[in-house]
Amino acid sequence: MRVVIQENLQAISRWAANHIANAINSYNLELRSKDRPFVLGLPTGSTPLLVYKNLVAMHKAGQISFRNVVTFNMDEYVGLPQNHPQSYWHYMHENLFDHIDILPQNINIPNGLAPNLDLECQAYESKIASLGGIDLFLGGIGVDGHLAFNEPFTSLVSRTGLRTLTPDTRLANSRFFGGDPTQVPTQAISVGIGTIFDARQILILASGPSKARALAHTIQGPISHQWTSSILQMHPNAIILCDEPACDDLTVSAYRYFKSLEQ
Ligand code: PGA
After folding, report:
1. How far away, in angstroms, is 35 Cα from ligand 1 center?
2. Distance, CA of 192 to CA of 161 (rounded, Å)
3. CB of 214 within 8 A of CB of 144?
4. Could you say which DSSP state residue 107 is in?
5. pLDDT per residue over 15-52, tens digit each?
6. pLDDT tens across 147-157, in order?
7. H or E element that contains 195
8. Which pTM value belongs to this model?
């Protein structure tokens, strides 16, 4: 696991956008990019907003094209129509897809209104596999260490499926629903920890002191389904990209070690 510590959210957002652009641009120079698109996993939430702004700016400046990119979003609420202002479909179009040159047929977001949610989950997982897996999975992290909606005690080998949101997550997300946790859907479709783990590279963002406890468990804790993000310790190519305030609960030795490696 590589841990990259930057000063603040602005700096991690620039770093992440550059990293994604470099990954896509280098891939497009490879021969296999003619047969198979670059497959990018994407999150929603507050943390990636500035990454998306940076990517849009880089696209407008001609530094990156998404013509040969297929995206898979991590999750979607069950029961919200696409045009609901809090659906992740709406979020992704508003913050990224409407401003770049991605082909609409290359956008994948689970359908939280599918008549058969189990089939929808299976089809989502199969589609990822049929495209040769995810090249780079960008993600955030919850205050309880969740990746996507894989709440504490979700199996570390889980695949795309239905998840029940914890009261903590509904409370955290109520800021988007007029401050009322009862307005936050109780269920979501989410890729599994196993789905994320299969990506060739994983880039997880953490910003601010509210993520400090989760980050310490992710980086230093034992690998446990209580902190599902701790599985990143086992991944051959995972990067945790965090800002200084998110490091508040790391031990001094861990902080110094990772800082020194990046200097
Ligand atoms: P946030 O969400 O970026 O809004 O903090 C992260 C998450 O819950 O995974």
Report:
1. 34
2. 7
3. yes
4. E
5. 999 999 999 999 999 988 889 999 999 999 999 999 99
6. 999 999 999 99
7. helix 193-197
8. 0.97
And the tokens for 201? 């590279």
| Selected residue with higher pLDDT from 186 and 168 | 186
Q: What is the pLDDT of residue 31?
A: 85
Distance 29 CA to ligand 1 centre (A): 33
Of 238, 176, 250, which is closest to residue 213 (Cα–Cα)? 250
Q: DSSP letter for 185, please.
A: -
Contact 55, 244 (CB under 8 A): no
161: CB partners within 8 A, 6+ apart: 118, 121, 189, 190, 192
The protein residue with its alpha carbon nearest to ligand 1, atom 7, reads 142
Burial of 167 (0-12, 13-18, 19+ CB in 10 A): exposed
Alpha-carbon span 219 to 157, nearest angstrom: 19
